[in-house]
């Protein structure tokens, strides 16, 4: 049933009953001369390395990549600023993007990996930006001649003799429910390659495999612009590709592929031609449930957090009254509590270089996330803006590298560290290192499968150039400024010469139970939203409700900070002064719940299968969860540090 629901959702798209979000013009704001130069360098690299030509192509272990050619920044802007205006009779190219099994969104292949009708002139690739290539898009010009405002009743695309190998390839595609994706005037369209039928006979049932040989295009226009395009298959025009019984060998079969085109006028303006995709990204009844679930979850979590904060404030108030009494009144009081460890609470932890690198990378990822939300709220990531999110992630990560270097070096200097070069290098690789190792493995898997998910060699070179020319220098520059501009750590209390012995603690006050408690409450605030995000990333739903996502993200940050502060207080009250690393682990523990949810979604909410899709899913979700650990661990550490400083500043410490 889940598979049928997802398949029906895609059929809504194919039938033209679902649509897209508004296209909005891009805008650039120069922040400073240095940032403008960096942006210019990045754009130049993206245009240079990621836009293929119409000529030859490179083959890298079975994956075709467009030949890297030089192209000016001006021509890139001209291409992005195309107005989509057409004259009557003008031939508008139809590009085929990819094919793949419906249940495995990451397992995609080039359209002409299947024996469809190829252009006689050879394959012509459309230039694509960096993010689009990272998203697995490989647009290739097809033979379809769809001229503006010219109807076609029935036109022969080609007559093709399918060899036994071709028939087997089509059978495999139909068996795994392959779909195709095309683009016409930058509007996406989908369709299925064929269908299966179960024929019940006198003795036993048999499966028949059919491919669709006719495509009908319904295209709407407003004056001189294309507004909407839909594709439909004709169930009466099919070709039987079922394998012969009794082990007989398949013979070559001749099949004729045809298409028809119907144009109709509409009053929908060009600016709203993408609205239908976002309008039906979630069905109305699902949207109401979505809002209700989010509000219910947020109210529950906020009430629990408020209750926890109120209790903590009352306890702190009593502690302050207790610790600020006269010494004569303290003789009969219990000699225990967080004041007694004032000489050890600011004792620097072990592995300060690693701790500083985690905090620096967490600050960078938090800044990157905020910037991505800002771009989403202003409408940059409208549906099917091919690769816009990936491009933004690469560029923003490169430009925010200085934040990681500055914060990491600053904390490392405050902790008394000397080898700041080692700290800067650790900051550079603490997130990129695991990502590079994972990417190398997954890209190798994609190459073996000959999937479009494998990045071309030229694109990999561009990403490495961006890292070496922008990310690494900015991290080093931030490390230098952090080292030279940082003052000594200002602790409200003097640190004792010898550490205080920590009293025996019950099992539930150890690190792992505290992490479970700290991660559960923030996760409960986001688990409803996680389903919709997963259904968008690892499915075919379109996510456009960025306002809800922003609210949930803010609540996640607040709840993480509140819970970590509360657990830090209870840890100090038990006279355990090892709060530095504990605050990071408790703050980032939500990431383990997110990764555990990945297993639930995979086995209960999706139909994904196969080695490639499984490795891509768990691999990339693992690196995403690791990023959440760094980011939320930083939030927990920073909140705990401010809290500890404030409470010890409010009392008199000898």
Walk me through the structure.
36% of the residues are buried. The chain is α+β, with helices and mostly antiparallel strands and 654 residues long. It contains 17 helices and 16 strands. The chain is elongated. Strands 4, 5, 6, 9 and 10 form a five-stranded antiparallel β-sheet that branches. Strand 9 and strand 10 (187-192) form a beta hairpin.
* Structural class by helix and strand composition: alpha+beta
Task: List the total number of helices.
Answer: 17
Mean pLDDT over the full residue set: 82
User: Alpha-carbon distance between the termini?
Assistant: 69 Å
User: How many whole angstroms does the radius of gyration measure?
Assistant: 29 Å
Strand content is 15-25%
What is the helix content? 40-55%
Tell me the overall shape: elongated
| Assembly annotation | single chain
Q: Let me know the number of strands.
A: 16
Uncertain spans: 1-43, 45-81, 327-332
Largest sheet: 5 strands, antiparallel
Write the topology of this structure:
Elements: H1 2-14, H2 33-50, E1 52-60, E2 63-68, H3 73-80, E3 91-92, E4 94-101, E5 109-110, H4 130-134, E6 140-141, E7 146-147, E8 152-162, H5 164-175, E9 178-184, E10 187-192, E11 194-200, E12 205-212, E13 214-222, E14 225-233, E15 238-240, E16 253-265, H6 275-279, H7 284-323, H8 352-377, H9 388-399, H10 401-414, H11 420-448, H12 457-485, H13 511-537, H14 546-573, H15 580-588, H16 590-605, H17 611-649
Parallel strand pairs: 13-16
Antiparallel strand pairs: 1-2, 3-7, 4-5, 4-6, 4-9, 8-16, 9-10, 11-12, 12-15, 13-14
């Amino acid at each position: 049933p889940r598979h049928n629901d997802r398949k029906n959702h895609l059929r809504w798209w194919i039938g033209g009953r679902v649509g897209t979000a508004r296209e909005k013009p891009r805008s650039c704001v120069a922040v400073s001369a240095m940032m403008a130069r960096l942006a210019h360098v990045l754009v130049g690299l993206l245009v240079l390395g990621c836009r293929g030509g119409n000529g030859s192509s490179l083959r890298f272990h079975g994956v075709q990549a467009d030949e890297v050619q030089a192209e000016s920044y001006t021509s890139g802007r001209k291409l992005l600023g195309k107005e989509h205006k057409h004259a009557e009779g003008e031939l508008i190219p139809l590009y085929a993007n990819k094919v793949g099994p419906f249940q495995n969104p990451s397992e995609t292949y080039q359209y002409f990996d299947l024996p469809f009708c190829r252009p006689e002139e050879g394959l012509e690739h459309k230039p694509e930006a960096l993010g689009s290539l990272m998203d697995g898009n490989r647009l290739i010009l097809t033979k379809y001649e769809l001229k503006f405002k010219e109807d076609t009743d029935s036109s022969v695309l080609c007559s093709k003799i399918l060899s036994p190998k071709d028939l087997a390839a089509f059978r495999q595609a139909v068996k795994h429910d392959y779909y195709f994706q095309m683009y016409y005037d930058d509007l996406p369209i989908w369709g299925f390659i064929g269908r299966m039928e179960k024929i019940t006979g006198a003795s036993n049932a048999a499966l028949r495999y059919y491919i669709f040989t006719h495509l009908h295009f319904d295209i709407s226009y407003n004056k001189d612009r294309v507004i909407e395009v839909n594709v439909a298959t004709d169930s009466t025009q099919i070709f039987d590709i079922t394998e012969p019984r009794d082990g007989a060998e398949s013979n070559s079969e001749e099949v004729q592929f045809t298409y028809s085109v119907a144009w109709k006028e509409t009053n929908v303006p060009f600016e709203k031609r993408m609205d239908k995709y976002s309008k039906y990204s979630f069905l109305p009844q699902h949207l109401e449930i979505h809002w209700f679930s989010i509000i219910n979850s947020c109210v529950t979590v906020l009430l629990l957090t408020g209750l926890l904060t109120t209790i903590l404030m009352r306890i702190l108030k009593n502690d302050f009254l207790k610790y600020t009494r006269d010494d004569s009144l303290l003789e009969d009081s219990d000699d225990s509590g967080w004041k007694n460890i004032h000489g050890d609470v600011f004792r620097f932890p072990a592995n300060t270089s690693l701790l500083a690198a985690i905090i620096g990378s967490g600050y960078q990822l938090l800044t990157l996330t905020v910037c991505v939300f800002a771009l989403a709220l202003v409408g940059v990531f409208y549906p099917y803006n091919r690769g816009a999110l990936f491009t933004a992630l690469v560029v923003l990560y490169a430009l925010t590298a200085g934040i990681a270097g500055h914060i990491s070096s600053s904390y490392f200097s405050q902790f008394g560290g000397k080898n700041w070069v080692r700290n800067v290098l650790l900051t550079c690789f603490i997130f990129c290192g695991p990502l590079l190792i994972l990417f190398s493995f997954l890209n190798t898997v994609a190459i073996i499968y000959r999937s479009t998910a494998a990045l071309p060699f030229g694109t990999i070179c561009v990403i490495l150039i961006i890292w070496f020319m922008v990310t690494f220098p900015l991290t080093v520059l931030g490390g230098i400024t952090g080292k030279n501009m940082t003052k000594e750590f200002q602790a409200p209390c003097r640190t004792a010469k010898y550490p205080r012995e920590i009293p025996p603690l019950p099992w539930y006050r150890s690190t792992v139970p505290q992490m479970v408690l700290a991660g559960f409450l923030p996760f409960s605030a986001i688990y409803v939203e996680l389903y919709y995000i997963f259904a968008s990333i690892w499915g075919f739903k379109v996510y456009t409700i960025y306002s809800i996502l922003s609210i949930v993200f803010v609540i996640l940050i607040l709840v993480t900070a509140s819970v970590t502060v509360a657990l830090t207080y209870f840890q100090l009250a038990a006279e355990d002064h090892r709060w530095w690393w504990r605050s990071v682990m408790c703050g980032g523990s939500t990431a383990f719940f997110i990764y555990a949810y990945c297993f639930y979604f995979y086995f209960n909410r999706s139909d994904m299968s196969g080695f490639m899709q499984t490795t891509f899913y768990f691999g990339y979700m693992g690196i995403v969860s690791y990023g959440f650990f760094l980011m939320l661990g930083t939030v927990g550490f920073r909140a705990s540090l401010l809290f500890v400083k404030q409470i010890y500043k409010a009392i008199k410490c000898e």
